[in-house]
Automatic annotation (TrEMBL):
Gene Ontology annotations of biological process type: amino acid activation for nonribosomal peptide biosynthetic process; lipid biosynthetic process; secondary metabolite biosynthetic process
Gene Ontology CC: cytoplasm
Residue ranges constituting the Condensation domain according to the UniProt record: 31-358
Descriptive protein name: Condensation domain-containing protein
Pfam families: Condensation
A molecular function (GO) term: catalytic activity
Lineage: Bacteria, Bacillati, Actinomycetota, Actinomycetes, Kitasatosporales
Amino acid sequence: MLWGQEHYWFLYFDVPAYGADRDCVKITRTWRLDKDLADDTVLAALSALVRQYESLRTNFLQDESGRPVQAVRPPWEVAFEAYAEGDASDIPAVTERLAARAFDPAQDRPVRFALIREPGKGAWVVVTAIHSAVDGQSWTVLERAFLALLDDERDAPPFLPAREPREQAELDHSAEKARYRERVRAYWRDRYLTIPQGMFPDYRPAPVGHFNGYTPPSPYERVALRSRALSFAAERVAAQRKVPPGVVYLAAFGAALSSLSGNERCVVSMDTANRADPLLSAAVGCFFQPALVVFDVTAKDTSEALLSKVFRAVVAAQRYARYSSLEMTEERARAGHARGMNLRIGVTYNYFVQAQPEHDAAPSGPPDGAGATDDFVIDKAPIDWQDNSADLYLAVETGKDGVVLSMHGHTSVTNADRIARTLRAMGALIVGWADSTLPLDAAMRSVQDQLGFPRREFGPHWVLVDHTWVDTGECAARLAELGGVTAAGVFPDETPDGGTRLVAYAVGPTTPDELREHMAAVQVDQPSLVLPHWYVVCAEAPDTPSFEGWAEAAVVAEGDGLPHHPVPPRTPQERALAAAIRDHCPGHPSDMATPYLPAGGRTALAPRVTDHLHAAGFTGIVPADLLGPLPLRAVAAKLTPTGTARKQ
């Protein structure tokens, strides 16, 4: 399977986590026909697209080992699945009708077509496809080819040379790419071992919606900034610093992100087309993947240093943006287990170029009025994107009228007022770079304060450990919830190598293993919780509940809390989970004290495990529950018998 297809293939099995039936992630586009054409003519052009592009007739199966694979089907003649006479106002209803019936990636055709005909004025072709089959650039390729097929006077072939997704997948999996795959794995492994648990450490409730809608009201607020002068300023800075304009906006976003989150280390997911190869520029398929951009914004960094850092980080991230999302999920789980945290990439950035702004972008000097913030228009905007795994999303879109910066923020970490202030400060930062009113050698902390970037400040119980802000008071409170524990405290402690670790102290009839297992189970309801690295059971609580007081208390037992022997299943739910894992993951120890993936499970087999459990009469978990830091005992505790077991 093509690397870019894996993520969306897996989501088909994970959608029930959000209360819906299984369905593929779908995307829709509408193509305008300005003249009346016979239905047969339009259908013939659409059928030609299906014949030309394998992706439009590909199903996604699993081989005997559970690995997802592509199966290219023979060409088929297109028929409209919806047909109406009307106008543009009918597009939403027709789109909904096309997408209403669920797509099964293993059996259904991956694309559907509809026609809305406006007599005497042309028509609209509505196309809905599963995301595993097409990405954003594919739509451009398809529309160009479709219109060329309908143009009797065309002077160029409708189809350009291109590599098919099947051919690219064979290349990606080939022996000659083995060294590249290992470098990619090393890049992601290093990032997973050094990034924060999340940019925003606040508690997040379980999501109620994902790609297929949400339960109102939306947990997001969105604000947009529009400006022509800002577009020119970003281009001028880009020309001066010899970096792409998208890097300039991302550097300003980094300045905002470090201030909003209170964390110097910024982690941003950024979609990458993965089409540098000329044979992929005109290809149809799902080639894009999120790149992982990581850079630090320290108080002493200058703007010049920040721009250089971000540019280098983007280059590295894009170099390693062709990867197996299934395998990187396993790397993330192993790193998270080793660090005692549920790693989450909660910040996304995308840069879109729709058209070049209509002004002279020469670096010699701005047009009248450019370089000022007077033309900034900032308004609250409707929600047009939602993914509950995200905390913050910045989309930068350039067009002939300038640039639009659109920021979505989850209400658990920000609000519309803070977003508006952030966007204004980002714009002022870029304009200041362009007109030299903000020297590039000024320290970022002073620049952030000068421009009014909203800043996150943490209370006295918060500490920065392993690049992550941790509320030690909350950790201690959750530790004290374990039965028999009468007192608890959690504190940072310096390690011999100069690092910092979290040490948990507790009084009661317990052990380090029990303390860690309890804290790991708490992550079911509080996924942002970071587990202490060391556990100390004391004979009695100190008179002064400080780190110094606990450190002098008499010790009964201490250790890292990790079990030294496999823990067998004991409850009916644990035995059912262990049986399901054994059946589909031969050799897996089914250790109830260890998460599924770090113990040797595979991401691609998680749907088979949950399907097995459902057939055995248990519900309550979805594949994603097996991919995080929860020990299997905590996963099994979520299972509920249904009383409707089917024969396996």
